[in-house]
Amino acid sequence: MNTLETFYTAENREARDRRVMKVIKVHKSACAIIQNRLDSFLSNELLPHRRAMLLKHLLQCQLCSRELQLRQRAMKRVRDAVQSQAVPPELERRVRERIRADAKTIRRVT
Prior knowledge:
The protein is an all-alpha fold. The chain has helices at 10-17, 30-42, 48-60, 62-83, 89-109. The chain has five helices and no strands.
């Protein structure tokens, strides 16, 4: 499905007769919507009904399935690259301290 759909109104018919066609943008294609949500899908951030709609589309659309595979591979390469890097000890200490401080604050509030 294209992102543009053509509608022939009386004015469009006249334009068509002059070998000119008006194109009116109606809405995004299903593929554009799905591809905008692929990262959320991969991060398991979609609501169940949106996830189900996305999966249904992926079963029927090779283009979007291919895009999903490309993004999965890219995410894996980034994850592998990050995990291969050692965390500086000072950074790890500061992060752990911050987590402990936040946990104490949360316990006091609840």
